[in-house]
Protein: NAD-dependent epimerase/dehydratase family protein
Amino acid sequence: MKVFISGVAGFLGSHLADSLINQGVEVVGVDNLVGGQLKNVNSKVEFHQEDCGNLKKMNEYMKGCDVVFHAACTAHDGLSLFSPYYITHNTFGITMSVLSAAAQNKIKKFIYCSSMSRYGEQETLPFIEEMDCNPRVPYGVAKYAAELVIRQICELNDIYFNIVVPHNIVGPRQRSNDPFRNVAAIMINRMLQGKQPIIYGDGEQKRCFSDIEDVIYCIEQLIFRNDLNGEIFNIGPDEEFVSINELAKIIANELKFNLHPIYVPARPNEVKYATCSAEKARRILNYKTKVDLKTSIKRMVDYIKKDGAEEFEYNYDIEIINDKTPKTWKDKMI
Structure:
């Protein structure tokens, strides 16, 4: 089997590549290294530094592949309200390029990594796959729109496909110097610098966090199985529904840090309570949670400590700056 992974230098893509290679699978990967890092790329990957929006190159690099796993994305939920062009282009736009190349190359299977941002605000919890989507930010709209087109193109071209919806993934290799996303990694980086974590709103917004190991297990089931065409799966633990305040305490305890968070105004359109049910994955993919949140945080702390704390990099332009743009971003407070 030969698998094409977009975003192979990123957090999710690089872990998936490592696991597949360990099982004897041939991996071709692309990444523009805007969010990914070259050090993450397994030496056995046929790696191409390229933007997924380059359709000609996607057609070229995908030749001979059996499966496409599309993970590449500028996955900035909150920032997408203030940089809608850039974030949606690097979410919906690049997906169209990868999808078109997959159809042109007669790829057998296409697996798309969506986001729980697709669900937005719902009247009931947890989010289940059958719910109508109600995204509250352009990033979530772009993710869901891409899903709809994937279904159309794959059905038209007889391509087997699945859509995976991870919870908030955590673990080693997650970027800790991106001020716009990855709340756990941002907090760890700041605390290692002796700085208090910054929390939006009252910190009582709640999430579930998924260890990368558990997420990879579910994705691999879909890569190797051929009896689940068209199915959508929420993937990742749903047992530990914690507030951002609780998350900060878990990290502070691991680092033995004297915690006094800095509270700033809530971010616009942020969903208060968001958790997905993993019941379908348990029932059909035989998914079981192996890694709890405290263990995930310890692994992240150990990994980030190895390289040391890093200065935060404001690599993305903010397109819309007004009184609703978070001051943390405008004034580079993080």
